Amino acid sequence: MTEKEREQVALFRYGIIAPLLNGQVDSKQYFEELEGKVHSIPYYGERKIAVKTVKEWLLNYRRNGFDALKPKKRADRGNSRRLSPDDQDHILEIRKKFLHMPVSVFYEQLIRQGEINQNQISYSTINRLLKKHNLSGKILSAIPERKRFAHEKVNILWQADLSHGPYIKIKGKVKKTFLLAYIDDCSRLVPFAQFFTSEGFDGLRIVTKEALIRRGKPAIIYADNGKIYRSETLQYACAQLGITLTHTQPYDPQSKGKIERFFKTVQTRFYPLLKAEPVESLEELNERFWRWLEEDYHRREHASLDGKTPHEVFHSQLESITFLEDTSILDSIFMKREQRKVKADGTISLNKQLYEVPADFIGYSVDVRIDDTGVYIFKDDKKVAEAKPVSMTDNAHVKRVRSPFSVTQPAEEERKEENNRV
Questions:
Q1: What are the Basic and acidic residues biased-composition ranges (predicted)?
Q2: What is the tens place of the pLDDT at every residue in 189-225?
Q3: CA–CA separation, 190 vs 317, rounded Å?
């Protein structure tokens, strides 16, 4: 089992115990519901989970954190055949165009079109994927029963979402912007929000880190099924911090009504200010937005808060907020993770680029983590080295260290050693 597979299993186990950790459910009732239920477990496949096992996971997590949920390392034979996250996204996008088609016919179509290999991806794998995302049958058209709710305490639940922002000029070119935001369910306060020129995960990383630093840690993050909110990086970070990450059902944006209402407020109260006085850069857009957020939105009385402001409600419960003791851990847990085997020349390949690592790692599989500052090698969750882009020109003039896996020596060196002995 690879390190990535161990992390996926740990993330699954954390998902099972998360409702118990945060007091979302009655433990007795929750265990009764788990009894006899079949789960699709990464690496292991479909299995039932004993209540005793779940209690053991819960105890291990409380004692030693997320790493205690990983299966113990052992030598496993064979490789698991599984759809990658990108493959899943691709198949889901295709499925949305053929919702009328029975899953069995859809599966056969994927094979005919060369999207999947029948010998590697079974019908049950595709069927489970579509069921998980509510794309397997006619239930798509059903309107879910919905009840209004609001948590009584702050930082119990944060709703997360992305909204399309205004077009602005950057270096003479018109660019589209996107607003990434969190909102606290109880107080309607926005822990953090920011405009970006892309919808990528880098923006979510920045917004999430800033929100946690400024406003403390929520028990639950509630997001839609967008790619960035289902990323393994976000799942891993939430598991490390003890946050439950939950997602809405597909095609059900109304279930995140509070943040949708916030975006509407931004459109009706902030965007008109930009028309009256346009911004000239992304930095200026964010500066004016943050000022409006603090001076207008957070200080304005809210009808659903009994005439109080989001600022008043949030700050009235400061004593119950859990702030991070060491915010520096955010830098490492929000890094993208990859596993690579170091080649005999001391390099790894990443995103079609060669990187050089210390010779000590030659022949070993290493934990690679990436962010916007660089590429790093980690061991036991600690940064131990930095991987540098390979410069072919510089390397031509560098004396290389022989690979420790080299068994024989060149003939010339052998002759020299023989002469020295004589």
A1: 412-422
A2: 999 999 999 998 889 999 999 999 999 999 999 998 8
A3: 15
Shared domain for 285 and 376, answered yes or no, is: no
> Is 64 in a helix, a strand, or coil?
helix
| Contact criterion met (CB below 8 Å) for 22 and 157 | no
17: number of Cβ within 10 Å: 21
Residue 114 falls within a domain, yes or no? yes
Residues 316 and 345 in one domain: no
- Cα 310–240–206 angle (5° rounding)? 50
Residue with tokens 């911090």: 241
Q: Provide the b/e sequence for 236-265 (b: ≥16 CB within 10 Å).
A: bbbbbbbbbbebbeeeeeeebebbeebbee
Average pLDDT, whole number, for the chain? 84
| 297/180 same-domain check | yes
Question: Which helix (H) or strand (E) is 177 found in, with range?
Answer: strand 173-184
For the stretch 222-255, pLDDT in tens is: 998 888 999 889 999 999 999 999 988 655 555 6
d(C-alpha 407, C-alpha 395), whole Å: 23
Domain with 416, as residue range(s), is 335-422
The contacts of residue 339 (CB under 8 Å, 6+ apart) are 2, 3, 4, 365, 366, 367, 368
